[in-house]
Known about the structure:
With 255 residues, this protein is an alpha+beta fold.
Amino acid sequence: MVxxxxxxxxxxxxxxxxxVARILARAQEVAAIGVTPxxxxxxxREVLRVAGASSPFLNYxxxxxPTPFPAVICVSVNDAVVHGIPSADPLRDGDLVSVxxxxxxxxxxxxxxxxxxxxxxxxADTELIGAATAALEAGxxxxxVGNRIGDIAHAIGTVCREAGYGILDGYGGHGIGRxxxxxxxxxxxGRPGRGMTLRHGMVLAIEPMLLxxxxxEFRHDPDGWTLRTTDGSRAAHAEHTVAITKDGPRxxxxx
Length: 255
């Protein structure tokens, strides 16, 4: 079931979205050569504490997971695409880092992700991160009243495929509200003019996940959470929580 939010509810979701934005900004400030992903998680916990918010990630256990998720952010490095558990391994010069963060505040969820490079970025990584951002922006631009879910999917997929990148098979965006994951699903590739019609008050987490090697396949780490590219190529993840409104898409997880 798709839950339509009132304008008041969207305003409340904007507050949880601001917390998510601050987590992502803080993660990028803290990230440096020699810093560990666990230290990024500690910084994220402090942002949540100061805001009086909680994490929808911590102890989350979907059907596929062998154990509850042990952190408040996902930190996926290099060939890890998503769901990386923050480790004690120090970040190295040139690492491509994707951070996915969520927050619960006042009973409403926010969810967003960003990818960036620690130290000196390679041209290939810069292009990959740029394509992920462009795909997200294209998806957001298509998130207007009267369009369909397929229009968002087509916009994202077109950017990814034209740049020669793979799209994480079987994963995409989702509705969001009182729960981090709600209907509808928002694929990262699809046909325009297909799927559910977008209405004022729908709120979606739009999140392209790009694989540099051009393949769509992935493998699981032994931890049961981390998804990696099968060819060892790098990956990038970009995400925002977006409200569909009569005045156009409104990004709720922007700073």
